[in-house]
Specification:
Distance between the termini: 21 Å
Shape: elongated
Structural class: mainly beta
Radius of gyration: 15 Å
Number of strands: 9
Largest sheet: 5 strands, antiparallel
Order of helices and strands: EEEEEEEEE
Length: 125
């Protein structure tokens, strides 16, 4: 069920993941219809750099489009990595958001991060 507090405030979803989640579609959470994702406050916080041999990235999106909001977000160094897609951040219906880590080359032995989605729910009267 989509999270919606009764006060006018920014809402947050978060999902921790590690190098062991490579290739998995992980559900971050669901936001309610009419919400607007705050692109400036959303993305991935990498706490331990991912160390796969060739590529260390993740996509943020939905089950219908896994990189709708973030494509190949860099996980190879400790950083706050913002969303990078220029699509509309307003959702028309309740929307389940996902993150998919994609590591390639030699198997990763390290990597820890948190996907963070900040959003403004619709105003209620």
């Amino acid at each position: 069920m989509a999270q919606h507090y009764h006060q006018a405030m920014i809402h947050y979803l978060r999902k921790d993941f590690t190098h062991e989640d490579n290739g998995s579609v992980l559900v971050i959470g669901e936001i309610p219809a009419g919400s607007v994702i705050c692109k400036a406050l959303s993305g991935v916080d990498v706490q331990v750099a991912f160390d796969a041999g060739t590529s260390n990235v993740a996509d943020i999106g939905t089950s219908a489009n896994d990189d709708l909001y973030g494509t190949d977000l860099a996980l190879g160094s400790i950083a706050a990595v913002p969303l990078d897609e220029g699509v509309s951040m307003k959702v028309a219906s309740d929307t389940e958001l996902t993150i998919t880590p994609a590591l390639s080359g030699t198997a990763a032995t390290a990597g820890e991060a948190t996907a963070i989605i900040a959003y403004y729910p619709p105003t209620t009267s």
